[in-house]
Amino acid sequence: MPTERLYAERLLPTWWVWLFSAVLVATLTIAYGAALGRSAGVIVLITTGAVVIALLWVTAPTVVITGATLSVDKARLPRTAIAEVDVVDAARIRALRGPGSDARLFVALRPWSAKGGLLVTLADDQDPHPAWLFSSRHPARAAAVLAATM
Hints:
alpha+beta; 2 domains; four-stranded mixed beta sheet; 4 helices; 40% helix; 27% strand
């Protein structure tokens, strides 16, 4: 079943990003409410709150593994193109994206969502990206799913 989801996760921001966003919305609400009245404050609260929640949700990337593909946000990779899968911790991620790193890597990191990730090396020499480096909250689980059919 190539289209069946074997693994899926959405990398929503961690609690402190939500808290920071709520503080910003509250600050705007209080400022506009004090300057223009309670009705304006309520309108600002509802509209900015909805916009912030929508932005945090929409900009959170997804990692989806099916029988045929690996998808990270909008990027798709056929699983037949995967040569190797490595679980990487925060220190290794820093090394992989730091000085001397390969600029051709496909990178989709969200350090405020997950500390670990995966390094997926590709078997296709024609691909402009020799590997994919992306965040995952459960990198060992995702790696096991990818490795199961390699």
